[in-house]
Amino acid sequence: MLKVGFYLANKRDLSSIDAIIRFSGQRYKYPAGISVNSKYWNTKSQRVRELHNYQDAFIINGRLDSVAVAVQAVANRFISTAKIPTPQEFVLSVDRELNPAVSTSTNEYLTDFIKNYYPTLTRAHNTVKRYVTTLNALTEFEKDRKKKIRFQDVNMNLYNELRRWFGLKDFSLNYFGDYIKNIKVFFKAAGASGLHSLTLPDSFSVISADTDAIYLNIDELQMLHNLVINEDLILDNYDATILNVTGNIERAIKSLTDCRDRFLIGAFTAMRFSDYAFLKGLKYQDDYITRISEKTGTKTVIPMHPIIRNVLKRRNDVLPPAISNQKMNDQLKVLGRMAGIKDKVEITIAKVNGKERKSYLKYELLTTHTARRSGCTIMFLAGIDTISIMSFSGHKTVKSFMKYIRASQVEVAMRMKDHPFFK
After folding, report:
1. Is 282 left (phi over 0), alpha (psi -120 to 50) or beta?
2. DSSP string computed for 146-207
3. If both were cysteines, with which of 68, 165, 223, 368 could 4 make a disulfide (CB 3.0 to 4.6 Å apart)?
4. Which residues span the domain enclosing 83?
5. What is the DSSP string of 373-402?
6. Regarding predicted confidence, which is higher, 245 or 46?
7. What's the total number of domains in the chain?
8. pTM score above 0.85
9. How many other CB atoms are found less than 10 A from the CB of residue 123?
10. Are residues 366 and 259 in the same domain?
């Protein structure tokens, strides 16, 4: 008899549970659709401990028993027909086994497919997160139009309808393009799962626009590095509502210091946020920083810059804890204001409905991604060759790398003035 195993999806306090089964040389995962407090999970029995202070245990274990029976039945059915299903086909088949009363016609809908599709993926966390964001937007879109999207509806009429809808939401062109890219991924995956045999028109294309995103030059990064974060500086610059959330001045000082140091590590390595925010085990005596990329799985080795060495030394080699992208973005704007990064910057934003020109103070545009862009640009201006920088940043093509170079024409000319060609 085929064995079904149950495993926690993560090690957090509250974790979802996945059913795992192996047959025909393949490994299949089915999200059990229920979560458990991990401290009550029995790894040996692969069930929840039925204790008097955890009354949900009986219900959860009953659900797991039902899932196990359905998973085994589906697996046996595929084995008997000598068919090796895709992960998506397997999940959909278990869904039908568990809910035989639900019409299979629901499989003609795009959002129904996505709900079953993304939990089966083993891709990077941020990629799956973007898929979930796209699903949420499409669900909202369906609600507004009062009609679900069928696979046969995914055509240029839908494309234009989506573009108008995103335009009303005042989204950027690149934001819209990212959603279209994900829709194409879902549509193709559904076709591969046998849910349709349709093709998209060539004009159902991903569109994007270059951005005027900023970078910090070496002097501005040095200003951040030299910034003495103390009570007076915080009271002069920190929004009172944020202080209330933070709790007190001491915690605010620590939180802002951690954010600043984390950003500097990103800026002097050109790493992605998902990499520099989660670095571990660095010592200031190290000559190199080694990291396996969260997104690509490739190994990156970068010489340690003196500023990173100083950061580690003054922190006694205790790296800042990771925080969310959004929280760090909020804190970076406060840090930029504190450090005096207040040059006026005009930015052109490509919206779905046209371009928009706005003026900002530079610190208002600081985000976690500014670190990576700054790293690429300051290394480029320092004369480091493109291939070496790409090996640090993890860019695969020169075209994608050059989008990160934010140097002005004057800065590029200054970089090249000592080149032998101009002597």
Report:
1. beta
2. TSPPBGGG-SHHHHHHHHHHHHHTT-BHHHHHHHHHHHHHHHHHHHHTTS------TTS---
3. 68
4. 1-102
5. HHHHHHHHHTT--HHHHHHHHT-SSHHHHH
6. 46
7. 3
8. no
9. 11
10. yes
